[in-house]
Amino acid sequence: MQYTEEQASILVEALPYIRRYYGKTIVIKYGGAAMVDERLKEGVCQDVVLMHYVGMRPVLVHGGGPEVSEVMRRLGKEPSFVNGLRVTDAETMEIVEMVLAGKTNKSIVGAINRQGGQAVGLSGRDADLIVAEKAEAEVDLGFVGRVRQVNPGILETLAAGGYIPVISTVACGPDGESYNVNADSVAGEMAARLKAEKLILMTDVPGILQDVQDPDSLISAMSADEAMEMVRSGRASRGMIPKIDACVAAVRGGVERAHIIDGRRPRALLMEIFTDTGIGTMITA
Amino acid sequence: MQYTEEQASILVEALPYIRRYYGKTIVIKYGGAAMVDERLKEGVCQDVVLMHYVGMRPVLVHGGGPEVSEVMRRLGKEPSFVNGLRVTDAETMEIVEMVLAGKTNKSIVGAINRQGGQAVGLSGRDADLIVAEKAEAEVDLGFVGRVRQVNPGILETLAAGGYIPVISTVACGPDGESYNVNADSVAGEMAARLKAEKLILMTDVPGILQDVQDPDSLISAMSADEAMEMVRSGRASRGMIPKIDACVAAVRGGVERAHIIDGRRPRALLMEIFTDTGIGTMITA
Amino acid sequence: MQYTEEQASILVEALPYIRRYYGKTIVIKYGGAAMVDERLKEGVCQDVVLMHYVGMRPVLVHGGGPEVSEVMRRLGKEPSFVNGLRVTDAETMEIVEMVLAGKTNKSIVGAINRQGGQAVGLSGRDADLIVAEKAEAEVDLGFVGRVRQVNPGILETLAAGGYIPVISTVACGPDGESYNVNADSVAGEMAARLKAEKLILMTDVPGILQDVQDPDSLISAMSADEAMEMVRSGRASRGMIPKIDACVAAVRGGVERAHIIDGRRPRALLMEIFTDTGIGTMITA
Amino acid sequence: MQYTEEQASILVEALPYIRRYYGKTIVIKYGGAAMVDERLKEGVCQDVVLMHYVGMRPVLVHGGGPEVSEVMRRLGKEPSFVNGLRVTDAETMEIVEMVLAGKTNKSIVGAINRQGGQAVGLSGRDADLIVAEKAEAEVDLGFVGRVRQVNPGILETLAAGGYIPVISTVACGPDGESYNVNADSVAGEMAARLKAEKLILMTDVPGILQDVQDPDSLISAMSADEAMEMVRSGRASRGMIPKIDACVAAVRGGVERAHIIDGRRPRALLMEIFTDTGIGTMITA
Amino acid sequence: MQYTEEQASILVEALPYIRRYYGKTIVIKYGGAAMVDERLKEGVCQDVVLMHYVGMRPVLVHGGGPEVSEVMRRLGKEPSFVNGLRVTDAETMEIVEMVLAGKTNKSIVGAINRQGGQAVGLSGRDADLIVAEKAEAEVDLGFVGRVRQVNPGILETLAAGGYIPVISTVACGPDGESYNVNADSVAGEMAARLKAEKLILMTDVPGILQDVQDPDSLISAMSADEAMEMVRSGRASRGMIPKIDACVAAVRGGVERAHIIDGRRPRALLMEIFTDTGIGTMITA
Amino acid sequence: MQYTEEQASILVEALPYIRRYYGKTIVIKYGGAAMVDERLKEGVCQDVVLMHYVGMRPVLVHGGGPEVSEVMRRLGKEPSFVNGLRVTDAETMEIVEMVLAGKTNKSIVGAINRQGGQAVGLSGRDADLIVAEKAEAEVDLGFVGRVRQVNPGILETLAAGGYIPVISTVACGPDGESYNVNADSVAGEMAARLKAEKLILMTDVPGILQDVQDPDSLISAMSADEAMEMVRSGRASRGMIPKIDACVAAVRGGVERAHIIDGRRPRALLMEIFTDTGIGTMITA
Predict the structure, then answer these.
(1) Per-residue confidence band for D46, with pLDDT thresholds at 50, 70 and 90
(2) Size of interface D-F (CB pairs under 8 A)
(3) Residue C279 · residue C222 · CB < 8 Å
(4) Measured between alpha carbons, how far is F33 from B177 in angstroms, rounded to an integer?
(5) Could you list the residue range(s) of the whole structural domain that residue F125 is in?
(6) Is residue B28 in a domain?
(7) Burial environment of residue E175 by CB neighbours within 10 A (0 to 12, 13 to 18, 19 or more)
(8) Residue C47 has what pLDDT?
(9) Does B touch E (3+ CB pairs < 8 Å)?
(10) Chain C residue closest to E70 (CA)?
């Protein structure tokens, strides 16, 4: 290719943002359409590699619900959910781990490496990165866990070596068994524990809407208190609740800013980073 | 517990071996019964953690054939082999990766961590650790690969951080696709590339036998030339050929000693390490 | 500002170039219109700071002929030249040093720092960075020197600290006196000594022309031998000769590529870096 | 040799203790029969080298009373004691130093090195490791000192280099003269200053006895307060008092556990380390 | 040369002072006759290089008023002063910077390097070392600044590399413009910021005199309070006031001792350093 | 004290020598009158500490023949010599070690520390620093050894920590027993192994004399060949032969210069170091 002066100028306009995030950790919950659509996925991986090369420290956290359900069905097991949480018996847990750590994770690692990054896939069991305990619930959900501790030592070792960590959200239980943990929640805890500069949750909606029915009612910035009030008052959609919880946990844990953005938009990550106002909804302490 | 004088003396007898292997890399191909039998598996993980704490650098490489076949069958796909190599179409490859990297690998990682180690699971795609190309064969075996390159940078980063690497043998192909590679072969190449002190292949036989029919005809030591001659002359059993190839590749690549040992024996690894004569068959350059 | 998707895409297109030059040293001879025109100057400083933040190691080398002549005239001294070289008596040398090291250099340092870089100005006398001896010539030119040695230790110290070096081309003579040395020549020697990836000479012409009269006859790439032939055959313009010499010295000293580019074009540096074909003329070994 | 499975299992049983003491400092006051009997001495040196190789940081402190008395008598000087403390005139001090630093110390160093360790002998004068002042007493004991300060810098330098320090208890006085200091006391202060995990005093008794007459009345654990009470109440034997003082000083100075063990038992050190209940008497804060 | 025993003894007498200042930072305001007289200048540079080689960390700060005035006159501009401060319009500022950073600074750097040191010249604009704001005054003095901040990072980088920093007192203003700042004041602030062991101001008087008329009334030591009282009471000469201010700022900022010495005496620096009582006047907190 | 200008100037005259030996290792064989006379001894220790503080790396090697003989006689044992070598039975060896490592060595260590250095005493057995084998001789000399190997690792560790090593010449034999080795010879081998800049042997004569009878016939410089010829031709005095051998071994092993100087002269070390022509006799390759 050949850069024109105008194109080169666009690079220069990114400079203030590059300087601001130099050496800073940015935790990205990767999911939704951006993980399914091949073109979007390639774009996200390019964005992440670019972030790495201009001096940021991106940390990717992913779940992979649809792929799990698909493999379950191929194995003759019907997925079932209670309040949005997957009922996870031992056999289901084995499938969850196999799919998240062996399929989704390695597929993302490969896609980043194809863009010239050096990604290393981890599950929460590697080096006891994520420790969970059984989540309390009205009905027994089996191996559904709640994050109790994040041990970020391995992430620091990888960062020092120049590697990009990609984390699948299978956690290690008290007796070494595996637990299925919510990826939004892991991302929020991880961001807090790493004292990340930013948490970015990639979703399939534009952000938090004032009125769920009105896509033009996007709230571009709000405080943690306002976000919690939205949950309490029932104005937040059910799918949005764990995302708001994750953002609030992050900013209350010391993260500057948490963002809920629309991963269906190409280059959503870069548009979020290289901007003053951001896209989607920003939650601050 | 309470050590008696006699028990303490046994520790002291290990001292010459501990000194000899202090800071040295030992590549272990983990497989067979020792990976299936839960008690043997726990024992191997204890042995590996002990090796780590007394100053060695164990690197585990594993395949996981039986588990792959089992999941394939559960998914309604009949495994098929040509000359001992699994015919690996795209769907099979996906299953191989899911099982090896998501199930077998994490299960070993968890077992080591339960013994107090800090294991990190990798597949050959992480940080492009293992690069493969399509293996040539008379019939098209699909995604069966041949190791072309090992990039050990990530292993050095992990060793410096005090982590024990556990490697599943899925490789990264020229266009980023996944390849199924033979675990013995990966272990041999890895040992050579890391200038390991030792390569240890855990099998379900006592070692190389002079006469395949006679379990008492164990050859305790032989040269690479003698081992190759055994293959050429047809005296080596078919299952033994890839193991001999791996050992010969390792010692010709600079590894001091390669061992084929009987993983069905409890504490086989320690019996191999803390001994002058070793168990099983030792191949040297 | 707010990046559009299209603008973000332009960033991503820079990725292959960012990866290629990551951690690499790029020596830039800064001069001509780009140093005089305030808007161009601001642009060059932005480009340099951007290069620094995306992982390159830019080293700036500058002269400052017009400013020297101007101050000389203000001090009542008429500049005089022989074959394009300034006749430099002791008083002139003092003015040269005062202007280059005290005015031009600090002005560039300040401009880079205003863009968010951390520049440190050096003259060739600092830490004996550039050692020169009296240049031989038909007439005595006084303190005009020829580079004899480059001591890059201080540049490595500054690079490790994250500073951008800006070097004015006053050299240290055998008895500690100052010498006026040609900036193109210093840049070429410096690039060779630092095993730089690239040498870029910013000029006020489009590059080397096949026919000096025809601005459309730009040669976009040539070998060192072809460039030298051009000098020998008299087809190179007199102003171009020291530039060709510097490029040839650099590539023969191990630099991959040397470029003569048109500094009058805004964003010339970035257009040169983020491109396959480059702008201006590229000379390779 | 050839390890049996049973023997290998004993190694594995040591793993929890190896993990617990990994990287921890253990100060050992070496003395009594274990320093006189050649077989016991060889055993202690093996134990210390093993401790070093499995990741602990043993620090040996020794006196050498009997050897001093013997050399004194060979030189025609009759040893004399007041309250168990050697009357130390200038000539005696010279003999003490010669024997401890030149004979006992180098003999231990040599014995450790023969077992494959890398020992370095120090006296308290080397790098001003132990600074003493004249001990106050009813009668003038001459150069008998009381520890005033421990300067552990040299121990950290040696530990970083992988060396095992062996310290003879001659201290440096305020004017640079040598002082004879009690080895138990030095070990206690050293352990406190190094924030050691353990202090182990090797003696010629089973530990602290409830009833000095009854060897079966061993107290296996007691608090510092209980131990001090034992001294105050006169129930502790005179020889035991400095040992109790040393243990109490250590645990009050931050050491987890102090132990008085029976050095006449072969492998006493390992039996103490690789055990839950320990041998001898343990004193804790 | 050939050292006699007596000469060698003088070296040894320096030992206590060498030990005391080993690894310590000493900020020297260089100025007055010692900067003008060529023999004195050579002597100061030798002293500084000696200080460096015996383990101290000298930092030189210099102004250069007379040279500035001289160049101004050569350019047809009459210097003018208000209350001892130079009226500094934009053109004057340009001359100040050119002379200080391009002539005086490089001349000192060259003189140190001729003595075997490795000096690096800096102005306050390099790496934003000195940040100033416009000084408030009754009449507008133009670009006369007051030090607001010292960023010593570059000094630490240079010290780690074994370089001797030489700093000209041009500061960086809020909008990147240059400011003329008082060298005494910079030296005082720099010493405080670097937690220097000593600040030494080289002047053309013996020190602070009890009676300005009586050169024999030198005060050899005084407290910061006493010095301030001297200023308030009008007993300090006008030229001495900024020097007293600098000393007081330094010692109140944590510097052990500040000295006003007579730079007209050869070897004044060494006589100050290698002495108990010092020469000139010492101010302490 | 108070330095005069003249005294300060003497410091400055040392500067070229300080620069030349900065960071260089200088091995000093300390012995003769300089070790016996208390005032000379204090002087040598001051010189060594000064050398350390001005950046050199002095390494002291010492024997202690007269003290050994004196202690032997006090113990009722008559010293006996064959060809200048002490007949060393087991009991004598024990006395040699006790005196050298426990008395002479610690006395030197203490004297250096009193001057403000941080000395650490070593014998050749510490960290196997000096390995010897039985010296061959016409009559059995017992434990008289010949240096076979020097393991300088511990010296590098100590140098990195800022410690001054003081080495007594007791070596470690093949089976761990102690050997009495010649101190000149150890110093020569040590200098060669450390690639020292200088070896200095302190003796009780002015140097090598052309005519042993004529103290004015000092040879100030000679080549290794000339020195060896002097030995072969019988013109070297018997006491001088091991010293010449040590110097020749050093310079042939890569040491720049070896010196035989008169330790009876106060400040002999500094007079040797801070001089062009040196004192005594210099031997070069």
Answers:
(1) very high
(2) 120
(3) no
(4) 80
(5) 23-284
(6) yes
(7) exposed
(8) 96
(9) no
(10) C75
Average pLDDT over residues F119-143: 94
Which chain F residue is nearest to residue D109, measuring alpha carbons? Answer: F126
At A113, which CATH number?
3.40.1160.10
Its pTM stands at: 0.93
Strands (E) located in F151-233: 164-168, 170-172, 178-180, 198-203, 221-223
Average pLDDT estimate for D221-229 = 96
Quote the pLDDT of residue E83.
Answer: 82
**pLDDT band at A14; cut points 50, 70, 90:** very high
**Nearest CB neighbour to D53, from listed B3, B15, B266:** B15
Count of domains forming chain E: 1
D144 lies in a domain?
yes
pLDDT digits (tens, 9 = 90+) for F135-168: 988 889 999 999 999 999 999 999 999 999 999 9
Q: What is the pLDDT of residues B127-170, one digit of tens each?
A: 999 999 999 888 899 999 999 999 999 999 999 999 999 999 99
Q: In chain F, which residues have their Cβ closer than 8 Å to the Cβ of E272?
A: none
Chains C and E lie in contact, requiring 3 or more CB pairs less than 8 Å apart: yes
Q: How far is B62 from chain D (nearest CA, A)?
A: 23
Instruction: State the CB neighbour count (10 A cutoff) for residue D221.
Output: 16
Contacts of A41 (CB under 8 A, 6+ apart): A34, A35, A108, A111
Nearest-Cα residue of chain E relative to residue F264: E5
Q: Which residue has the tokens 């040799």?
A: D1
* Interface list for chain D against chain B, based on CB atoms closer than 8 Å: 1-5, 7-16, 18-19, 22, 43, 46-47, 49-50, 53-55, 115-116, 265-267, 270-271, 274-277
| Model pLDDT, residue F7 | 85
Counting as contact any 3 or more CB pairs under 8 A, the partners of F are: D, E
Residue found by looking up tokens 């380390």 in the block: D273
Is the per-residue pLDDT at F1 higher than 70?
Answer: no
Tokens in use for C197? 């990836």
Going by pLDDT thresholds of 50, 70 and 90, the confidence category of residue D107 is very high
CA distance D278 to D273: 7
**Tokens 């007993």 sit on residue:** E235
Q: Is the pLDDT of residue D260 over 80?
A: yes
Which residue type does A32 have? G
Q: What is the pLDDT of residue A253?
A: 97
Percent of chain D with pLDDT over 90: 84
Burial call A189-201: b when 16+ CB within 10 Å, e when fewer: bbbbbbebbbbbb
Does the residue B158 lie in any domain? yes
Residue E272 · residue E279 · CB < 8 Å: yes
Chains A and F are in contact, defined as 3 or more C-beta pairs closer than 8 angstroms: no
Q: How far apart are CA C270 and CA D120, in angstroms?
A: 60
- For residue C228, being part of any structural domain is answered with yes
Integer angstrom CA distances of residue F174 from B264, F133, F187: 43, 6, 20
| Residue D22 backbone dihedrals phi, psi, to 5 degrees | -60, 120
The whole-angstrom separation of Cα F169 and Cα F184 is 9
What is the layout of strands, in order, in the sheet containing B164-168?
A: B119-123, B164-168, B57-62, B25-30, B198-203, B257-262, B281-284, B221-223
Cβ-defined contact of A11 to C50 (cutoff 8 Å): yes
Q: Are C134 and C66 in contact (CB under 8 A)?
A: no
Q: Which of A11, A45, A265 to mutate to test the interface with C (most CBs of C within 10 A)?
A: A11
Looking at this predicted complex, what is its ipTM? Answer: 0.94
Contact F40, F7 (CB under 8 A): no
> In 3D, which of F21, F52, F37 has the Cα closest to residue F204?
F37
Which pLDDT does position F276 carry in this prediction?
79
CA angle A23-A27-A29, nearest 5°? Answer: 155
CB D261 within 8 A of CB D203: yes
